[in-house]
Amino acid sequence: MAGNANNQDSRPDEGSRNGSPGIGTRAGNPRVLVAEDHPVSIDLLEHLLRSAGISPVVVVNGLDAVALVARESWDLVLMDVQMPGMDGMEATRRIRILPGGAHLPIVALTAAGDDEQRAACLDAGFSDFVAKPVKPSELLRLLARWLPGDAGPAATARPEDPAHGLRRRLAPVAHLDFDLGLAGVGGMPLVFQRMLERFVEVHQAGGTRSMDLLDRSDLAGVARWMHAFSGPATLLGMTDLAGFAGRIDRAARERAPAQAALGEALASFQADLDRMLAALRAALAASPDTP
Predict the structure, then answer these.
(1) Does residue 158 sit within a domain?
(2) Using alpha carbons only, what angle is made at residue 73 by residues 70 and 76, rounded to the nearest 5 degrees?
(3) Residues spanned by the domain of 51
(4) At 287, is the secondary structure helix, strand, or coil?
(5) Residues 252, 216, 230, 95: is their CA dihedral positive or negative?
(6) Distance (Å, rounded) from C-alpha 150 to C-alpha 204?
(7) What distances in angstroms separate CA 238 from CA 175, 182, 232, 271, one per listed residue?
């Protein structure tokens, strides 16, 4: 891969994990920058980081991430690979040439965990990578590995008491795997409820937006929307809907079906999404004591 030899020298060395000179390394008070554009993913990362005793700063594109790293000191950057405008790959390349940027740990957040994607991340200068949706155990592993010595994560917050009422309220929601979704947010029912509420809020007009993109013949936009949708949906236990989005994503990227066929698939997706959102709204609005 072109540029691999040059990038090799710009990646953090092992010493940077223990607070070697570079950008950041404030023992006991680590500064973590998150570059992520999907609201549900942002909420989840903030919850997980705060449960580890870290208050992150969030930006929604690569350009802002580069600007903040150039101005301020950081101990770790969690960087989404696919963002609008400047993506995570280009942002990481630019950070690596900043003064001190060669030693800053930058972890790729990527929905594609195949070998080709991993190799591309390393070639761009990432220190490590983690598959999206991010699991709590994986995030804690990354924090323990890359934050300097005594600035690692605090003890994980004790999980909230099981919310049996939430399970009862969500029981009528078809194609929602409660146990899978609860596990995805570290077994914390109140966080799970908040993530579902945020999901409903964000995706109210989601399917309609993808149809608008198709009407403009923006197949790349359709693919990006479906790709961004499938990660949080998988995390929250909506595997059927996430799988549907994944198939549309692949079809749009490969330009496999005619636009009319893709429109039919999007209309079907819209109907499924609307049913899921209506069921979630009703379930979440119900009293916790609803039998």
Answers:
(1) no
(2) 100
(3) 4-151
(4) coil
(5) positive
(6) 43
(7) 6, 11, 9, 15
| Residue 8 host element (H or E) | helix 4-10
Q: What is the dihedral of CA 245, 246, 249, 251, to 10 degrees?
A: -110
* Residue 32 sits in the same domain as residue 77: yes
**Do residues 98 and 181 share a domain?**
no
pTM (two decimals): 0.66
State whether 34 and 71 are in the same domain: yes
Residues 194-244 pLDDT 10s: 999 999 988 875 556 666 666 667 788 888 888 888 888 988 999 999 999
Collect contacts of 219-228 with beta carbons under 8 A, ≥24 apart. Answer: 219/252, 219/253, 219/255, 219/262, 220/252, 220/253, 222/248, 222/249, 222/252, 222/262, 222/266, 223/248, 223/249, 223/250, 223/252, 223/253, 224/82, 224/84, 226/252, 227/82, 227/111, 228/37, 228/38, 228/82
